[in-house]
Design brief:
Layout: E1 6-8, H1 11-15, E2 31-37, E3 56-58, E4 64-67, E5 71-74, H2 80-91, E6 99-106, E7 112-117, E8 123-126, E9 132-133, H3 134-140, E10 149-158, E11 167-171, H4 176-182, E12 186-187, E13 192-197, H5 201-210, H6 216-225
Parallel strand pairs: 1-11, 7-13
Antiparallel strand pairs: 2-3, 2-6, 4-5, 7-8, 9-12, 10-11, 10-13
């Protein structure tokens, strides 16, 4: 039976991490927000807020979007700035010096992380263009439960895409200096943050159910919806 090693989050581990937000490539299932300025007759600016067909474009299964006066555009694999340039060139055929902004309003589910266990508000989060740290995720979950959580049992479960066993990282939020260090640990899509209870047998039961990773995401979905 494979024995899973728990890796302590240390300054050396933090230093070895990197996150290049500018390199994110648009994927199927991403929802783009596209706003064209100064052309209210064709692209109503008041529709910027909310789910509007004028500004929201879902990248389909073929990696394409459709945008008025530009037609069908293949955007998968391009950065936001590259899509802005492509759209500007296409709209220039019908408009003089078009000014537009392109962003990602919603990331596809493959960008999700899951914060579970003894936090105030367990939830699913998306990793955006800016790196999400462990402390960010805990903060968005409104912190550790002051009654039931075990501060030195904060775990990050990460799938190993080259194997079936994965990795388990541990942070100690009871110690102030370690809390600052561990908080800088950068999460990646697919990570599970699990805060253990005072009874560590609950953690042992949880982790034994997660590994191996054959049905990893299905189990996570079930846990996060309960």
């Amino acid at each position: 039976m494979y024995k899973r090693q728990v890796i302590e989050i240390t300054p050396d581990l933090i230093e070895s991490q990197s996150y290049e937000s500018e390199s994110y490539k648009i994927s199927n299932g991403d929802e783009l927000s596209i706003v064209v300025f100064g052309q209210n007759e064709y692209f109503p600016i008041q529709s910027y807020i909310g789910n509007s067909p004028y500004t929201k474009r879902l990248v389909d299964e073929n990696g394409k979007i459709f945008f008025p006066f530009a037609g069908e555009i293949f955007v998968k694999g391009y950065t936001v700035s590259e899509v802005r340039k492509i759209l500007t060139e296409l709209l220039s055929k019908n408009f003089v010096d078009p000014q537009l902004d392109v962003g990602i309003s919603t990331f596809n589910p493959n960008r999700n992380i899951y914060v579970l266990g003894e936090v105030v508000r367990p939830q699913t989060m998306s990793v955006g263009l800016v790196g999400l740290t462990l402390s960010d995720a805990i903060a968005q979950a409104q912190g550790l439960s002051p009654v039931t959580s075990k501060g030195n049992a904060v775990f990050v479960v990460r799938k190993d895409y080259e194997g079936n066993n994965g990795f388990v990282y541990r942070a100690n939020f009871n110690n102030a200096s370690e809390f600052v260090i561990a908080g800088e640990f950068i999460l990646i899509p697919g990570d599970i943050v699990f805060v253990g209870a005072a009874d560590i047998t609950k953690w042992n039961r949880f982790i034994s159910q997660l590994f191996p990773f054959a049905s990893f995401l299905n189990q996570v979905d079930n846990l996060s919806s309960n």
